[in-house]
Specification:
By secondary structure, this protein is mainly alpha-helical. It is built from two helices and no strands. It starts with 12 loop residues before the first helix and ends in an 18-residue tail after the last helix. The mean pLDDT is 92.
Length: 62
């Protein structure tokens, strides 16, 4: 996720994100808005119970 914490790591964030985006099926790095949209979607649907939603752009860090 592209959050401010990356700015403190002393690395070329743009280059790192570009490289990561190439490997993701969605071809971009996630944003906090992506998390918020997923959260709101689950909260608005009263028929969803007990699920895990992976907001990961198609790649999980294991």
């Amino acid at each position: 996720m592209d959050t401010p914490i990356w700015n403190q790591l002393g690395m070329d964030k743009q280059a790192a994100f570009a490289e990561l985006a190439e490997r993701l099926p969605v071809r971009r790095v996630g944003t906090p808005d992506d998390i918020a949209q997923a959260f709101l979607s689950l909260m608005r649907n009263g028929f969803i119970t007990g699920t895990v939603l992976h907001v990961d752009g198609g790649h999980r860090i294991t």
